[in-house]
Specification:
Length: 270
Amino acid sequence: MSTAPIRVAIAGLGAIGGVLARRLADGVPGLVLTAVASRDEARGRDFLAQQRIDCPVVALAALPAHADLAVECAPAAVLPAICRPMLEAGRQVMVLSAGALLAHPELIDLATARGGQIIVPTGALLGLDAVTAAAEGEIRSVSMTTRKPPIGLAGAPHLVRNGISVENLTEPKRVFSGSAREAAAGFPANVNVVAALALAGIGPDRTMIDIWADPGVSRNCHSIEVDADSARFTLAIENVPSENPKTGRITALSVLAALRKLKAPLRIGT
């Protein structure tokens, strides 16, 4: 294993990217923050100055010149613009907008052709190690149920397109039932977890999900059920929302844990 630190760039300085920038700037063994990209460059520079973080704000196309690995912490629509330059250069990209990968399989082909790598961290869902292990055998079914406070689902394209309101709810309301592929398209900022689950297991068309807007919960709640020839298991997690109600606090911590693994002398988990 090389002793040189991994140069890390962060694309997006929102609720997740801001946390990662601060933690990396504080120091993580084997990693160094070398660049950030921000939709609003002036705001990006202001953030770095306020946090006393010394690194440049660069364009997405310039990321490969500054980093070995870029962490995507941006809206799903920006994913290709972040991934393509890095993968063209044979670099690594850590992707949080896993749902967008389902719509852009050519990015996986590009990684294969150029020797790059796309890493999808566990994020807000637990149990992906068990799912990937079960996928080495036969998985018969994977289903997931997500319950979120209504504010965490408001504005999702599926709700807007179908005229579904989640305002002033007094009881839980199921707003979607279908495949992971359909859910990722209809809720691009809300259920990247089910896309990651699908990629780890039996694919986006056989992985099923129900999504509920639930005024009785204050956390983002996910449960999965997997039936395989090697095991049958049920997993559940309740994530505390970050300052962005669409995502949980644990997501940034999951990215940090995944980054630590890249240079760790002892690595736990698949």
